[in-house]
Write a structure and sequence with these properties.
Elements lengths: L6 H6 L7 E3 L3 H11 L3 E3 L5 H4 L3 H10 L4 E4 L6 H7 L2 E2 L2 H10 L4 E5 L3 H9 L4 E4 L14 H10 L8 H16 L1
Parallel strand pairs: 1-2, 3-4, 3-5, 5-6
Length: 179
């Protein structure tokens, strides 16, 4: 399984002579390509929320908040601007960790805005400003703790896969968790 937190490691684990087709996110793929120097073919897909965060959003927020550190998720459409600014680019978990460890008090955040609440809870006294207030995923908002509990209790929305696929997926998840 590939997440923004392990994408570089996953690509680096592939033999250097192999070309890579990277999907589903072209912005994350571009970030990984630049980090690894690997030959990566990008699939033209992206998250609609991250895609909508633009270079113009970054430019406007950097101008409105000079000197404030910018944290950018590598799936954002503004990635080229973020790379140009040289600010912190990381997965969601990397952003949360960085905010906690950083002595800075104010951050611009370029990703789905739901992360800001978690950052504020873990970092009282620090301020997190969204680069794009409209960067909200209506699909993520449909998943709630109550709905997950209901689904587990009733087993109404059960998903099954053939054992050979489940075994391969389990190995991939185990490798991802082990880091």
């Amino acid at each position: 399984m590939l997440y923004s937190s392990n994408a570089v490691r996953v690509v680096e684990s592939i033999a250097p002579d192999k070309e890579i087709l990277f999907l589903p996110d072209m912005f994350l793929g571009q970030f990984v390509r630049e980090k690894t120097g690997r030959k990566i073919h990008l699939w033209p897909g992206s998250c609609h929320v991250h895609y909508a965060i633009t270079d113009q959003d970054i430019e406007a927020q950097k101008k409105a908040h000079p000197g404030v550190e910018l944290m950018v998720h590598p799936e954002c459409g503004c990635l080229s601007s973020a790379l140009k600014h040289g600010d912190f680019i990381a997965s969601t978990s990397g952003m949360v960790r960085h905010a906690k460890e950083s002595p800075k008090k104010t951050f611009l955040v370029a990703t789905e805005t739901g992360i800001i609440h978690a950052m504020e809870k873990q970092n009282p006294g620090k301020t997190f400003l969204p680069v794009a207030r409209a960067a909200q995923c209506e699909f993520m908002k449909k998943i709630t703790v109550e709905k997950v509990l209901w689904s587990l209790q009733s087993l109404k929305h059960r998903i099954t896969v053939p054992p050979e696929i489940a075994d391969k997926a389990r190995r991939a998840i185990d490798r991802m968790v082990q880091g």
